[in-house]
Every structure is written in structure tokens, then in C-alpha cells.
Amino acid sequence: MSFGAVERLMALRYLGSRRREGFISVIAWFSLLGIALGVATLIIVMSVMNGFRAELLGRILGANGHLTVYSNDGPFEGYADLAERLAQLEGVELVVPQIQAQVIVTVDEQARGGVVRALRPEDLLERELISGNIERGDIAGYTAGEGVLVGTRLARAFRVGAGQEITVLSPQSTTTVIGSVPRMKSYPIAAEFEIGMFEYDSSFIYVPLELAQIFFRMKNQVNAIEVFVEDPDAVRDVNTAIRANLGRGWRVVDWQQANSSFFNAVKVERNVMFLILSLIILVAAFNILSGQYMLVKGKGRDIAILRTMGASRGAILRVFFMSGAAIGLIGTALGVGIGIVFTDNIKTIQGWVEDLTRTQVFNPEIYFLTNLPAVRDPVEVLQVVAMALGISLLAPLLPAWQAARLDPVEALRYE
Question: Mean pLDDT over residues 107-128, rounded?
Fold first, then answer.
């Protein structure tokens, strides 16, 4: 057997529980579990943060355009020609003329705020996030221009459904001989949609464009044009191209401008969580450091005997370095496994926790989404593994170096 194999066997032996070193072995196990939990927690939290951002971005950009074009003069005509012109620009995927308005929705004696989005039927069918998530009813009523689409949570709040009616009140009033009268209209509900984002499911109403033009008195007019691009991250380039094409008198707002504070907050929170959770691994590394120091102190006689038998300082250093590094390697591998299994089954685990505690651990009114998302980034996993291994391999270096410098004569003097 080579001396390298002997070094590895000795390193592994020092990790086991012996009579006098049992406490050291306990510290080693706690260090291993600390690193495993730190790595797993980092992977899980970073995956959830990634999933949270991806889900919000997908739903926000699915229910809203990547860019929205407004006229400085209010509602405008000729929107069909303008939409066709914008569709010819490079990077533009879809152009949707529409009416956007804030309204009051009433049913019987109940009332709450709502948002009207009026689209042509063919444009709504292109919006997979809406047309592909019809929960109840039939979208045919919308395409025929006879009914509206409402979010499931809005319908639930009013206790209405497909086939029933809701009344919409506009903030703009109508002047009559008896004074100003609120403008209102009742529409039958054709279907209910659910896109999984609380804000939209509880307030959005999709109305056929022709019906909305009559209600808001915008004959042959719209007040906004939404533009979807091929690459949302390159939206600034398309923004510049649209401004150059339209000239003065128009305002263009892209999704990065409209949601900058929100996504910046998510990014800051993500970075802070990474920094805080990294301290778990750092604490575990200090446990490795203290455990290895205690091991070196307790193995002074063994070190002296090995040195007198011809073991070099490098061999002693490698034995104690491998003993400490094994804790980091095993703990990191265990943490990666736990993190991957957890993120792959996070919805199932969420269901178990909710069934056990009989509470909703992911309230959509607070977190905007109805499910806990997780998107694991391989690059981030590698970064976590590299950080954990780096800290774990640095921790045992100093105790191993101290063991290598131990003088055999001093170690055996009082034996």
C-alpha cells in the first residue's frame, strides 16, 4: 500500500468517533450538517427568488405589453395603420391597439375598482396567457362581441359567473338636462380567466373593443397601443426605434421603466439573502477550524510517532487537511442533493406543509402569485458549490499547517 493511500485512511479514521476524540467527531458531524444545510438553503432560496422573478415577469409581460405607446393628445384615430407600421419594425412580434381605463365594477349593492382592457377579438386570441387560461365559460361570447371576460377572483368576490352580468361605471359622466349622470353599462360575463397573479385575477376585465368604444365614447379611437417584442431584455432598442418612427407627440413606456422599482427591489432582496445565508456556511467552516485544532491537539503523540517513522511535514499536513476537507466535500455534496430534491418537489412540499398546518403559507394577496415557484440556475448552483468548497478547504489549512510544524521531541517529552 502506498503512503498516499495510508494518508487517506488515516484522514478518514480521524473523522470517526474514538474514545477520547468522540467530542471532536461530534463537532465534525455538526460542521458537516451545517455546510449541507447552508448549501441546500442557498440553492433553495436562490431558486425560489429566480422563480418568483420569472413568474412575475412572465405574467406581467403576458398581461401587459413589453412597450405601450400613448398619444400626448389622448385617444387617437388611425390606430390600425399605426399598428401595421409599428409591426414592420425590427424585433417587434405583436402590436395590439386597445382602450385602457379605470372603472368601478358593481353587482347588486357591492362595488370595487377594476381595470378595463378593450381588445379586438383576434388580438385577445393571440394573448395565450388570457385565452389559454379560461377556467369557466366560453371565450366564443367574447369573440362574437357579446360578452366580457373577468378574472376568477373578481367573479368570486361578486359571487357571479359566466352567463350573469356585471355593471361597469366610468369616472366620466354624461351631461343631461338634470345634471351630470354617471356613465354605466351592464355586460354579460362570457367567461372567467385565471392567469395566477392576484392583481390581474381580481381586477381585470377584458371587453370587446367595439363595445368599449361605444361605452367610453371613443368612436374609431383607442388610447393605447401595446407592443410585444421578440427579446424583452432588448426592449430599450425597440423603444428607441419606435420613438424615431413616431416622432413628436407620442409617449412610449417600456416594461423596465414601468416596473423598475419592483424588479430592483427583488434583485436587492435576492443579493441580501445570498449574503445572509452564506454566513451559515461560514459558521460551519469555523466549526471545522475549531474541530481540527482540537484534533491536532489530541493527536500530538501520533504525529510525533509518524514523524520519527519517516513521515514528512507534507505528509502530516495532507493527513489533517484531507480530514477537514472531507467534511466540506461531503457536506457540500449532501447540500446540493437536498437542494435539488427540494426545488424539484417544492409544490408537493408546499402542499404537505399547508395540509399539516392548515394555513396558506404563500398568500397570493401578499406575494401576487398563487403558487410557490422555483427555477434552478446551474450557474448559481456552481457558484454556491465553489463558495462552499472554497471556505471548507481554507478552514483546515491552518490546523494542518500547525500539525506539520509540530516538533516530535516536544510532543513526546511528557509522554
Answer: 90
Rounded CA-CA distance 86/79 in Å is 10
Q: Name, in order, each residue with C-beta under 8 angstroms of 268's C-beta and a sequence gap of 6 or more.
A: none
DSSP letter at 197? Answer: B
Q: Are the beta carbons of 400 and 324 closer than 8 angstroms? A: yes
In three-state secondary structure terms, 364 is helix
- Residue that has been written with the C-alpha cell 399539516 in this structure: 356
pTM for the complete prediction?
A: 0.66
Nearest by Cα to 284 from 396, 187, 203: 396
pLDDT score for 336: 92
Burial of 219 (0-12, 13-18, 19+ CB in 10 A): exposed
Q: Is 107 left (phi over 0), alpha (psi -120 to 50) or beta?
A: beta
Contacts with 52 (C-beta within 8 Å, 6 or more apart), sequence order: 266, 367, 369, 373
* Coil vs helix vs strand at 114: strand
Tell me how far apart the alpha carbons of residues 343 and 382 are, in angstroms, rounded to a whole number. Answer: 16
What is the rounded CA–CA span in Å between residue 273 and residue 265? 12
Query: Which pLDDT score is estimated for 300?
Result: 66
* Closest to 118 measured CA to CA, from 149, 87, 95, 93: 149
